Amino acid sequence: MAPAAAQVQRCTDTRTGQVTYTDGPCPSHQRSVEVLPAQTPEEKAAQARQYEEAQARWQAEQARTEALRRAEAEKAAAQAAAAAAQRPPVQIQLPPPAEPQVVPYPVYPYPPAYPPGHRPRPPHGKPPPPEPEGPWQCNVFRCYDGKGNVRPRP
C-alpha cells in the first residue's frame, strides 16, 4: 500500500531564522515554502518520458517551421527572378567628354620653371661663421683649440 501524500509546509521565522514543518498554513510572520515528497522511480521514468516527448515535438515543430520558411524564400526568389527577366536591361549613357578649360592665370610645370624676368630672392639669415684658423679639434657640436677656447661648429 502506497503512503498517502500530505502537503507539508516549511515555515521559516523571519526574525530568528528557526525552521519548522507543518501540514497546515504557516503563521503570518513566517515565510512559507511547500516541501515536495521524493519521487518514486516510476514517477521519475514518467517525467523523463514526458520530457523526451516534449523535446521530440519541439524539434518536429522547428523542422516544420524551417521547411516552410525555406519554401517561402525559394518562392520569393523565383518571383523576383521572373520579374527581373521581364524588365528590359538598363542602358547607361555617359555624358560627352568635356571641353578643356582655359584658366586665366599661368600654370607652371613641376619642377618649378620661373617666368621670364624672375629674379631669385636673396638668401635669408646670417652668413655662416668663418672657418676657424689654426689647429682646432671639432666634434659634432663644438670646436676646441689647444688653448681652451671653444666656439660653435661652423
From TrEMBL:
<feature type="compositionally biased region" description="Basic and acidic residues">
    <location>
        <begin position="41"/>
        <end position="55"/>
    </location>
</feature>
<feature type="compositionally biased region" description="Basic and acidic residues">
    <location>
        <begin position="63"/>
        <end position="72"/>
    </location>
</feature>
<feature type="region of interest" description="Disordered">
    <location>
        <begin position="110"/>
        <end position="154"/>
    </location>
</feature>
<dbReference type="InterPro" id="IPR025392">
    <property type="entry name" value="DUF4124"/>
</dbReference>
<protein>
    <submittedName>
        <fullName>DUF4124 domain-containing protein</fullName>
    </submittedName>
</protein>
<feature type="domain" description="DUF4124">
    <location>
        <begin position="2"/>
        <end position="50"/>
    </location>
</feature>
<feature type="region of interest" description="Disordered">
    <location>
        <begin position="37"/>
        <end position="72"/>
    </location>
</feature>
<dbReference type="Pfam" id="PF13511">
    <property type="entry name" value="DUF4124"/>
</dbReference>
